[in-house]
Amino acid sequence: MTASAADRMRQERLAAKLRENLRRRKAQARQLSDDPDAQPAALSNPPGDG
């Protein structure tokens, strides 16, 4: 495989991962907008527990 073919394959993999991440984040945003009392798991700890 040539360097340009490897670069192209890498770019395609990265683009696919970015699309997957965007879909997941949009789904999370939709869930949060549907349920305003819900908090994301990353923010479930109180801010002062530090």
Question: In words, what does this structure look like?
Answer:
The protein is mainly alpha-helical. 64% of the residues lie in helices and 0% in strands. The radius of gyration is 18 Å and the shape is elongated. It starts with a helix and ends in a 16-residue tail after the last helix.
List the SSEs and their pairings.
Elements: H1 3-34
Radius of gyration: 18 Å
Sheet bearing the most strands, described? Answer: none
Average of pLDDT: 83
**How much of the sequence is in beta strands?**
under 5%
Structural class: mainly alpha
Written as H for each helix and E for each strand, in order along the chain, the element string is H
**Count of helical stretches:** 1
Number-wise, the strands total: 0
What keyword list fits this structure?
50 residues; mainly alpha; 1 helix; 64% helix; elongated
Sum this structure up briefly.
The protein is mainly alpha-helical. The chain is built from one helix and no strands.
